[in-house]
């Protein structure tokens, strides 16, 4: 891999993602990794990330100079650029010229910036600056606050930039990063969806051997792709289970039961437990209580599903029933955030299935644990999953229950489901699916307002539209959906959904609002 050495910036994962967008495999490694640990990973290049510290600060994460003597191509970014400059004999100083945000750099020749405009905007965030490049390095960019804003030494396959090429605010950043990888480091872009899928299927086959596995489907993209990979690897020794808790959106169960099964040929058990969940949720309007009830019942449902799966296995192949592996759709960001552990140890820390039966022991299979979301989607397409599944927006495990403000019951669910289906249909028709991260549709079941419809007064409920744009759901902004689309959705919902006489738009970013209302 290309190893991104994480100096504590929030940017390391983003850098890894950008490297993979250049179709080269990349992983994040903490800056505390030793030279031996780095060498053991067999890297093809190193990228030193930015970091919050000043290279002068006490306890600033230090770069072991031996890392630069491994003979590997190295690219430094921001703090990583300064550490690299310092370690190679250049100079770094407190210039007092702090640069933060959009900054113009002027470029002069070199390989990194070839083909770019002589001046162009980049995203800066630094107080210290490199004032003189190491011997043998050519300075190829500068800005008002950074006399050395980029340098390179093609012979040693090393280069670096003061700015952040990984963020979208550096419009040419991806190109610069790609030029480092392909022109200076000489790497080939081979990390493609079909290669990824092939490697993952192979790895699952190795891990599971002759064992058997079970996979809970949520209707979402991660569990679907994970299941499809495992299905491809071990065929009918995988059983998929799907719990219908009655809190799903229109068409979601059918999508799993028909489309997913048709695309993969997987064996599926569906549990229709909606009555159970509705029973426990009756009269409950506190959001956390709703979540707890659903979480608890989900474990029970999953237990029943596992029992059924075992019986099915037994009658299917006549072998003593046992299921050895549990498939989870854990993604790379979760792995990095939880410290990047080895992965089979702690089942409870992964909450994709909402917890697991205590008395059943599984080893985990997490075929997606090295992938980012966009790669998961690409692999899903490669495996022939329908667009409606691989392109699906995130949807919370507790489902529509946390999109009804107030107590949950059948009628309210029906109302919300109808409104949600209309909003989704019109957003898709307007071509907005790719630019919207997700659009919760919320029913304010405890609120009524006066309206007029036909020739009478109405006293109905409002529906809230919550379209958001985001990169990772940690922060989000409300999406500026075209007025025409909003008008269409509003007209259709108020005309077609009984009991709803008002549609409102949520124009709150996150923070301070969360994406979901509960
Ligand atoms: P919030 O509301 O915290 O949501 O801004 C962030 C993202 O997480 C999703 N979400 C959940 N997903 N189980 C899930 O699997 C949950 O309980 C849950 N709550 C929120 C939400 O849809 C958004 O994408």
UniProtKB/TrEMBL annotation:
Q: Where along the chain is the active site annotated?
A: 78 (nucleophile), 164, 166
Q: Which InterPro entries match?
A: Class_I_gatase-like, GATASE, GMP_synth_C, GMP_synth_GATase, GMP_synthase, GMPS_ATP_PPase_dom, NAD/GMP_synthase, Rossmann-like_a/b/a_fold
Q: How does it assemble?
A: Homodimer.
EC number(s) on record? 6.3.5.2
Task: Quickly give the catalysed reaction.
Answer: XMP + L-glutamine + ATP + H2O = GMP + L-glutamate + AMP + diphosphate + 2 H(+)
Name the top EC class.
ligase
Record: residues binding ATP: 218-224
User: What is the species listed in this Swiss-Prot or TrEMBL entry?
Assistant: Dietzia cercidiphylli
All residue ranges annotated as the GMPS ATP-PPase domain in the record: 191-392
**Described purpose of this protein according to its UniProt entry:** Catalyzes the synthesis of GMP from XMP.
Q: Name one Pfam family in it.
A: GMP_synt_C
- Indicate what this protein is called per its UniProt record: GMP synthase [glutamine-hydrolyzing]
The alphabetical list of record keywords is: ATP-binding, Glutamine amidotransferase, GMP biosynthesis, Ligase, Nucleotide-binding, Purine biosynthesis
- From the UniProt record, give the pathway where this protein acts: Purine metabolism; GMP biosynthesis; GMP from XMP (L-Gln route): step 1/1
Highest taxon of source: Bacteria
What lineage, starting at the top, does this entry show?
Bacteria, Bacillati, Actinomycetota, Actinomycetes, Mycobacteriales
